[in-house]
Design a protein that fits this description.
The protein is 26% helix and 31% strand. It has 231 residues and is of the alpha+beta class. It is elongated.
């Protein structure tokens, strides 16, 4: 059976660090976690829909379930877990493109346990290991996982999820609420800074839940600007 992706974010006290947690159910009738190698891509998606990739340590490719992620701002983040089959004396094919330079056949991608590396087939073959004497003729080590020929490759599984990271906005909103206090003399003017932030925070979360990440990102930028102006 195909794996069904389940994941979540865990915030730490320091908003500059959080955890991406893979909670997918492995094991019969699905594959075990260690039957394939997984590499995590993380990108902040700007309001212009541009990807700003964050370096993530994916080592322990066969067992890792929690990934520490450093970031500098709240916003819309995309997580792509790339699950690579393990090389096992199989047939491999090279990439084929049509006259318009469009990939019609994706190259075989594999994780090779002895070297703890990922490889792309560059010349079709059968039963030649990446570290064989002539292995470099048939395999090329993958050093960048962000290209379309890797992320769209049909010989691996790719699990994608979009999430709203709002740790700083949440703390900023709570901070404004604490400023109000509980004095009977408090009035609506004292509540306004908190209410402005709360409306934006709720709005961003609502847009994210409604699968409108670009709008969630735009609202988050407004909230971040408001919080930064008053730090």
């Amino acid at each position: 059976m195909p794996l069904v992706n389940i994941d979540c974010l865990k915030y730490t006290e320091d908003c500059a660090l959080f955890k991406y947690v893979n909670e997918t159910v492995y094991g019969a009738p699905n594959q075990d976690r260690n039957q394939a190698a997984e590499y995590l891509l993380v990108a902040h998606i700007t309001t212009e829909a541009l990807e700003e990739f964050i370096t993530v340590d994916s080592q322990n490719y066969l067992t890792k379930l929690e990934y520490d992620i450093s970031n500098t701002l709240d916003g819309h983040y995309r997580f792509e877990r790339l699950r690579f089959p393990i090389w096992a004396n199989d047939v491999a094919v090279a990439e084929i493109k049509d006259v318009n330079n469009v990939i019609t056949t994706y190259a075989t991608l594999r994780y090779y346990t002895p070297t703890n590396k990922f490889y792309k087939c560059i010349l079709g073959h059968s039963n030649i290991a990446p570290d064989a004497i002539n292995g470099a003729t048939y395999w090329q080590e993958i050093t960048s996982f962000t290209t379309a020929d890797i992320r769209k490759n049909t010989t691996i599984e790719v699990f994608v999820s979009d999430k709203l990271f709002d740790c700083r906005g949440k703390k900023c909103t709570k901070k404004e609420l604490l400023k109000v206090g509980c004095s009977c003399t408090d009035n609506i003017n004292k509540l306004m800074p908190y209410l402005k932030r709360k409306v934006l925070l709720n709005g961003a979360r609502a847009k994210a839940a409604d699968l409108k990440p670009e709008q969630a990102e735009l609202i988050t930028r407004q909230l971040s600007d408001l919080c930064n102006c008053n730090d």
